[in-house]
Amino acid sequence: EAKTSGRNAVRFFDPAMQAVLVVKMMLESNLRVALALEQFQLYYQIQVDAEGHVVGAEALLRWIHPDRGFISPLEFIPLAEQTGLIIPIGTWVLETACNQLKKWARNPKTAHLSLAVNVSAKQFQQSNFVEVVTEIVRLHNIDPTRLKIELTESTILDNVDATTEKMQQLKKLGIAFSMDDFGTGYSSLAYLQKLPLNQLKIDQSFVRDLSDDESDATIVRAIISLGLNLGLDVIAEGVETVAQRRFLIEHNCLTFQGYLYSKPIPIEGLNALLDGDASEHHFLLTPPDADE
Ligand code: C2E
Ligand code: MG
Ligand code: MG
Ligand code: MG
Predict the structure, then answer these.
(1) Helix or strand or coil: residue 103?
(2) Which residues are near ligand 1 (CB < 6 Å)?
(3) How many angstroms from the chain centroid is the CA of residue 165?
(4) Complex ipTM over 0.90
(5) Is the Lipid metabolism keyword given for this protein (predicted)?
(6) What is the pTM of this model?
(7) Using CA positions, which residue lies closest to atom 35 of ligand 1?
(8) Whose atoms come closest to the Cα of 45: which ligand?
(9) Cβ atoms of residues 24 and 79 within 8 Å
(10) Which of 15, 42, 64, 181 is close enough to 203 for a disulfide, judged by CB 3.0 to 4.6 Å?
């Protein structure tokens, strides 16, 4: 036993592992100042209906680090979760998104748009989350029905009773819910029926190989009919090709998000896109058929 723990003790000083720890600690302390120094930015990715009209957008967080440049949320969100920093960061995301909704509300061309915000498990599970959202919505004086919260299956199933309760309170306020990355988790049909959801978002991993992989196509068809039978909207994420869109339309999934329409872009780009003339709308309706 003594020998084993001795080995473990030596392993603790493994330089490679120490380097990983140092990078992590640096990232963490950088994450702390990133908010104060305004290194975070929201990017926006449009959501489009079958006629090619923009119906809303998803807000996606970007960290532009002075030395390291662009850091993916896939890298820093888990760290923010571990350290609890996701709470102030998530609040900033909600405030920035609601501020944008308020601006859109002033313009008849954009007043109908919804904005989806990703909320992670720790953020949703903070005891005063409902109060925080209520206060942000009130302060920005926005129509809460334009705000959509994206939760993953694992966030919801982590503590299904407490989560459902919070979702119901926020739903009463008018806020909509989408289940993100749907199909990758373990939702049972019994839960799905009870949750106050508005939308299922088909995970992009199933959309990707839709045209070549028969089992992915089967899963996508099943998710669409499940969602529609439960009275939910169904949106597909990661739509990159005309063939994928055609398959989705044929199977009654009529809302799309993906590079076929636009990558996530800064607000200036989005506003330019929304301001676009008829020809731009036409582009959205019939993107280049290069992939066919
Ligand atoms: P997600 O919510 O599932 O977001 C979709 C991801 O797919 C985004 O990656 C988006 O850029 C990417 N994507 C969209 N269309 C396509 C496509 O056609 N092809 C491909 N290959 N990818 C596409 P991103 O922005 O890197 O975000 C990754 C994840 O980070 C998000 O996944 C979400 O889970 C998390 N995230 C992003 N912003 C926030 C945030 O503000 N708060 C929290 N808690 N999580 C966030
Ligand atoms: Mg999302
Ligand atoms: Mg997703
Ligand atoms: Mg995802």
Answers:
(1) helix
(2) 45, 60-61, 72-74, 77, 90, 93, 118-120, 150, 180-181, 204, 237-240, 258-259, 264
(3) 21
(4) yes
(5) no
(6) 0.90
(7) 73
(8) 1
(9) yes
(10) 181
